[in-house]
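Appendix B, record 7
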Amino acid sequence: MERSIDVKALRERVGWRQDQLARFLGVDRSSVSHMENGRPVRGPVFRLLETLVAAADAGTSDALRPSEPAPAEQGAAA
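C-alpha coordinates (predicted):
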Protein backbone atom coordinates (compact mmCIF):
# COMPACT_ATOMS: atom_id res chain seq x y z
CA MET A 1 0.00 0.00 0.00
CA GLU A 2 1.37 3.40 -0.97
CA ARG A 3 1.62 5.94 1.76
CA SER A 4 -0.02 9.30 1.33
CA ILE A 5 1.87 12.57 1.12
CA ASP A 6 0.49 15.83 2.49
CA VAL A 7 1.36 17.89 -0.58
CA LYS A 8 0.65 21.29 0.97
CA ALA A 9 2.66 20.53 4.10
CA LEU A 10 5.56 19.29 1.96
CA ARG A 11 5.44 22.35 -0.28
CA GLU A 12 5.43 24.67 2.72
CA ARG A 13 8.21 22.66 4.37
CA VAL A 14 10.53 23.19 1.42
CA GLY A 15 9.41 26.82 0.97
CA TRP A 16 8.14 26.51 -2.59
CA ARG A 17 5.19 28.23 -4.24
CA GLN A 18 2.53 26.19 -6.04
CA ASP A 19 3.92 27.19 -9.43
CA GLN A 20 7.41 25.97 -8.47
CA LEU A 21 6.08 22.62 -7.33
CA ALA A 22 4.02 22.39 -10.51
CA ARG A 23 7.13 22.91 -12.65
CA PHE A 24 9.04 20.28 -10.64
CA LEU A 25 6.19 17.79 -11.11
CA GLY A 26 5.49 18.70 -14.74
CA VAL A 27 1.84 19.59 -14.06
CA ASP A 28 -0.31 22.73 -14.03
CA ARG A 29 -0.50 24.85 -10.90
CA SER A 30 -4.19 23.98 -10.67
CA SER A 31 -3.22 20.30 -10.40
CA VAL A 32 -1.05 21.13 -7.39
CA SER A 33 -4.02 22.91 -5.84
CA HIS A 34 -6.20 19.84 -6.41
CA MET A 35 -3.54 17.59 -4.83
CA GLU A 36 -3.34 19.92 -1.83
CA ASN A 37 -7.11 19.62 -1.45
CA GLY A 38 -7.15 15.84 -1.35
CA ARG A 39 -7.03 14.56 -4.93
CA PRO A 40 -5.13 11.25 -4.85
CA VAL A 41 -1.59 11.34 -6.24
CA ARG A 42 -0.28 8.33 -8.15
CA GLY A 43 2.31 7.24 -10.66
CA PRO A 44 5.26 9.40 -11.69
CA VAL A 45 3.99 12.45 -9.78
CA PHE A 46 3.86 10.40 -6.58
CA ARG A 47 7.43 9.19 -7.17
CA LEU A 48 8.63 12.76 -7.72
CA LEU A 49 6.93 13.80 -4.47
CA GLU A 50 8.71 10.92 -2.70
CA THR A 51 11.99 12.25 -4.12
CA LEU A 52 11.16 15.70 -2.75
CA VAL A 53 10.30 14.22 0.67
CA ALA A 54 13.68 12.46 0.76
CA ALA A 55 15.46 15.67 -0.27
CA ALA A 56 13.59 17.64 2.39
CA ASP A 57 14.55 15.03 5.02
CA ALA A 58 18.19 15.30 3.92
CA GLY A 59 18.09 19.10 3.77
CA THR A 60 18.87 19.15 0.04
CA SER A 61 15.51 20.22 -1.44
CA ASP A 62 16.95 23.55 -2.61
CA ALA A 63 18.98 21.64 -5.18
CA LEU A 64 15.71 20.45 -6.75
CA ARG A 65 14.01 23.86 -6.78
CA PRO A 66 13.05 24.76 -10.35
CA SER A 67 14.57 27.93 -11.73
CA GLU A 68 12.28 30.84 -12.46
CA PRO A 69 10.92 30.77 -16.01
CA ALA A 70 12.31 33.20 -18.55
CA PRO A 71 10.09 36.28 -19.16
CA ALA A 72 8.86 34.83 -22.48
CA GLU A 73 7.75 31.65 -20.68
CA GLN A 74 5.92 33.66 -18.02
CA GLY A 75 3.89 35.47 -20.68
CA ALA A 76 3.05 32.23 -22.47
CA ALA A 77 1.84 30.62 -19.25
CA ALA A 78 -0.58 33.44 -18.45
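Remarks on this record: The radius of gyration is 13 Å. Helices lie at 7-14, 18-25, 29-36, 43-58, 71-77.
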